[in-house]
Amino acid sequence: MRRLTRTVAAAALAATLALVAGCSGDSDKSTDAKGTGGSLEKVTYLTSFGNFGRDSYAWVAKDKGFFKEAGFDVDIKPGQGTGSVIQTITGGQAQFGPIDLTGGILQLGNGEAKDFVAVAAIQQRTMAAIVSVEGKKIATPKDLEGKKLADTPFSVVRNLFPTYARLAGIDGSKVTWVNGEAQALMSMLGSGSVDGIGQFVVGQPTVAAVTKKTPVVLPYSNVMQDLYGNALITSTKIAKEKPEMVKRFVGALLKGLEYSLEHPQEAADILKKNVDATNPAAAKAELELMAAYVRSSNSGTAIGTLDSGRVAKSIALLRGAGALKQDLTPDQIIDLNLAPKA
Fold first, then answer.
1. Does the pLDDT at position 279 exceed 90?
2. Prediction pTM value
3. Which of 24, 44, 56, 255 could cross-link to 271 by cystine, CB 3.0-4.6 Å?
4. DSSP class of residue 97?
5. Is residue 105 helix, strand or coil?
6. Where are the alpha helices (DSSP H) in 82-194?
7. Count of alpha carbons within 13 Å of 66, Cβ hemisphere only?
8. Local structure of 304: helix, strand or coil
9. Is residue 9 pLDDT above 60, yes or no?
10. In whole angstroms, what is the distance from residue 97 CA to residue 105 CA?
11. Which helix (H) or strand (E) is 219 found in, with range?
């Protein structure tokens, strides 16, 4: 009887130890896979402007498991430009998204938006531009006078245009703007209903593919130096209350960005898999053009870094051009504690 009792007790102890070991193993696997030891945190991410190749890095971060490894289940939705992305994030409908940093400065400095902060740079130089096509008799900024341009109401290209016009010697009152959705702008240009559109420099391949014409590009960077391009933002509430969560998300997204630049064809194919309307060749070409903007002489080889001195110069430029109603300091628009270090 004693032998039977000891045998039963030993079996029970072995089963208990096996169960504990199994639970511990599951917990370790969960921590390794998710980086947080808990369930995946649901996050809504907005692209900067529609679903073009330049924004494919978010889809890459999701497809390659970078978001999951960092503990996130990410829902990616198409953004409609700087102002719209800011409104959606500060309104709580999304947690992260890229905006043109100069556009963010304009929004904040003119009282049109608040309660957001930039936590990483996507492009170290602005890619904002007016894009037309051959046959529209547009070759210089001055040629825009008397022309009709289209863009979303909240696009940085449109909101920064008065400053660009002033610095480029354009009479902005002679330029007509009409509204258009992000994904429809190139078709509007191709149909001839407008003479030009607000667009990023890297959009040239997609413009050519959609319009079947040769693009003509007027980059804002030709007259405005030192301006950042897109920067990842979140709400000030999330930045304050969940700093470690923000850092994890930034790391995963930038990992997707770096991978996309190193493997543009794969990134374009991943975007096509998720967004059926994608033109893979154009998406690949956009990423190849964007590489020079993500890494520049200002940032060396670092990805995602922000510099308060450069932001101060941008603020001074806009202030000097009369584009800001109130002065700002860099720490009102960027959080260096959450941004990657140079």
1. yes
2. 0.81
3. 56
4. E
5. helix
6. 82-90, 101-109, 156-168, 185-191
7. 21
8. coil
9. no
10. 16
11. strand 215-219
- Locate all alpha helices (DSSP H) within 204-242, ordered by sequence: 204-211, 236-241
Nearest to 308 by CA among 283, 337, 279, 280: 337
Looking at the DSSP bridge assignments, the partners of residue 131 are 197, 217
**C-alpha 255: how far from chain center:** 13
- Look at residue 170 and give its three-state secondary structure: coil
SS3 state of residue 246: helix
CB neighbourhood size of 17 (10 A): 10
Radius of gyration of the CA atoms of the chain, in A: 24
Tell how far CA 336 is from the center of its chain.
Answer: 18
The predicted model gives 180-186 an average pLDDT of 91
Tokens for 313? 């110069």
Cα–Cα distance for residue pair 95/85, rounded to 1 Å? 10
Asked whether residue 260 carries a pLDDT value surpassing 90, the answer given is yes
Task: Decide if 14 contacts 63 (C-beta within 8 A).
Answer: no
**Predicted pLDDT of residue 14:** 43
Over residues 207-218, the pLDDT tens digits come to 999 999 999 999
- Say how many CA atoms lie within 13 Å of 308 toward its Cβ: 11
pLDDT in tens, 64-112: 999 999 999 999 999 998 999 999 999 999 999 999 999 999 999 999 9
The answer to whether the CB of 216 falls within 8 A of the CB of 224 is no
Per-residue model confidence (pLDDT) at position 297? 58
Reduced to 3 states (helix: H, G, I; strand: E, B; else coil), residue 190 is: helix
Residue 45: partners with Cβ closer than 8 Å, 6 or more residues away: 58, 74, 75, 76, 77, 94, 95, 96, 97, 253
Q: Which residues does residue 79 pair with via DSSP β-bridges, in sequence order? A: 50
CA 125, CA 145: separation in Å to the nearest integer? 26
Give the DSSP letter of residue 297: T
> Can you tell me the distance from the alpha carbon of 2 to that of 99, in angstroms, rounded to the nearest whole number?
75
**Backbone phi and psi for residue 282, each to the nearest 5 degrees, phi listed first:** -70, -40
The model's pLDDT over 295-325, given as tens digits with 9 standing for 90+, comes to 865 555 689 999 999 999 999 989 988 899 9
Distant-in-sequence, close-in-space partners of 221: CB < 8 Å, separation ≥ 6: 125, 126, 127, 128, 201, 227
pLDDT score, position 243: 98
